[in-house]
Design brief:
About 45% of the residues lie in helices and about 20% in strands. By secondary structure, it is of the alpha/beta class. It has a single domain (about 5-200), classed as Rossmann fold, CATH 3.40.50. The protein binds adenosine-5'-diphosphate and guanosine-5'-monophosphate.
């Protein structure tokens, strides 16, 4: 059985990174796609761990070479998903998470309609504002930019199969675990299974 392609999007500060870290700690065999970005690293971010940090020239060269499954400009910086690690994970049956924006998710949906698209939202706009400010990783101007995009991103909610409200991290992670289990039981994913052979032999 091919792996599940899990696409996770949501406004900046919703808690996507926090949820993905907790999910990976609980399910160590799950893959996580490391994106390339032109955004400068935040304190503590190591190259090749959270992102591959590249300059604009290198990023555009990768675009030309077809190295990305999808890419987009988000908050004035370029972000892209390297194609090869995703294709390899799915082919060997490993589930893999892509934490990407709504523009990228729309591109992925065109080539992987069988992907599982999950939108993470905080309990309220006020809580989102509190979280993004509390994280303390962006300047006030960058925070305003990110908050200005929230409505545009929320308008894309219909593209997604599931919406997960991130009230408590543990609950949000439990919901995503439940989604993974349910998706693996879908008849349309199991259509190549020889039930006769499995059941009657
Ligand atoms: P994103 O990856 O969506 O931009 P982060 O995972 O960086 O968001 O979370 C933004 C901030 O909110 C971080 O400081 C994180 O610790 C905090 N946070 C995330 N989830 C929750 C939650 N359920 N309750 C309270 N704070 C949270
Ligand atoms: P951050 O700068 O906070 O790490 O990420 C900013 C936004 O870029 C988030 O919405 C995140 O999901 C998105 N993002 C991260 N990597 C990718 C990627 O490879 N492709 C796309 N399209 N968006 C990405």
């Amino acid at each position: 059985m091919r792996g599940l392609l899990l696409v996770i999007s949501g406004p900046s500060g919703a808690g996507k990174g926090t949820i993905c870290r907790a999910l990976r700690a609980k399910i160590p065999q799950i893959g996580y796609s490391i994106s390339a970005t032109t955004r400068p690293p935040r304190p503590g971010e190591e190259d090749g761990e959270s992102y591959f940090f590249v300059d604009r020239e290198k990023f555009l060269k990768m675009v030309k070479e077809g190295a990305f499954l999808e890419w987009a400009e988000v908050y004035g910086e370029l972000y892209g998903t390297p194609r090869k690690p995703v294709e390899e994970a799915l082919a060997r049956g490993q589930d893999i998470i892509l934490e990407i924006d709504t523009q990228g998710a729309a591109q992925v949906k065109r080539c992987y309609p069988e992907g599982v698209f999950i939108f993470v939202i905080p309990p309220s706009y006020a809580e989102l504002e509190r979280r993004i400010k509390g994280r303390g990783t962006e300047s006030p101007a960058a925070i305003s930019d990110r908050l200005a995009w929230v409505k545009k991103e929320m308008d894309q909610l219909d593209l997604y199969d599931y919406v997960v409200v991130n009230d408590r991290v543990e609950d949000a992670v439990a919901k995503i675990e439940a989604i993974i289990i349910a998706e693996k039981c879908r008849t349309r994913r199991l259509k190549n299974t020889d039930w006769y052979e499995l059941f009657w032999s």
